[in-house]
């Protein structure tokens, strides 16, 4: 759904003059269990996933992306249950970045300590870290993608 400003700018023929953007929320999966193969989430991880869903509830989420690992899928699950959006899985960051840039949708992307900052870079922003530290599960990269192809993506790093 277009924001009112977007509709006004389109009707006025000024689509390139206004920035109607999508917002991407990139996170590393929540705290994982000590299982060796495809771990789930700890109690703290489940609580963090619920917190993330509550935080994103008012954000008009239109897509959810995750790798196919249990820990990432379980991090996305509370938002999936809340929004009834399907969780789309991804493998290739280049393809995902292209899809996210062109979709024009607000989306959650759940990844890993190495893939989350890498995806941010592929989206055209510069995160402050190469990798998310192993002990850090509460970082949130918020990437605003302008609809105007000449616009520059913006990054906000925060915690949740």
Give an account of the 3D structure:
This protein has 160 residues and is α/β, with parallel strands linked by helices. The protein has five helices and six strands; from the N terminus they run αβαβαβαβαββ. Helix 2 (43-56) runs parallel beside helix 3 (70-83) and helix 4 (93-103) packs across helix 5. It starts with a helix and ends with a strand.
Summed up, what is this model?
It contains five helices and six strands, in the order αβαβαβαβαββ. With 160 residues, it is of the alpha/beta class.
Which descriptor suits the 3D outline? globular
Number of helices: 5
Determine the strand fraction and express it as a percent band.
Answer: 15-25%
Second CATH tier, the architecture: 3-Layer(aba) Sandwich
Q: What does the main sheet amount to?
A: 6 strands, mixed
Instruction: Provide the domain count.
Output: 1
Using the coordinates above, name the CATH class.
Alpha Beta
Number of strands: 6
* Secondary-structure content class: alpha/beta
Distance between the termini: 27 Å
Q: What string gives the helices and strands in order?
A: HEHEHEHEHEE
Helix content: 25-40%
Q: What is the third-level CATH name, the topology?
A: Rossmann fold
Strand order of the largest sheet: 3-2-4-1-5-6
Q: In the CATH hierarchy, what is the superfamily? A: Phosphoglycerate mutase-like
Radius of gyration: 16 Å
Mean pLDDT: 90
- Contiguous low-pLDDT stretches (5 residues minimum) are 1-19
Topology:
Blueprint: H1 4-11, E1 21-28, H2 43-56, E2 63-66, H3 70-83, E3 87-89, H4 93-103, E4 107-111, H5 115-122, E5 139-146, E6 154-159
Parallel strand pairs: 1-4, 2-3, 2-4
Antiparallel strand pairs: 1-5, 5-6
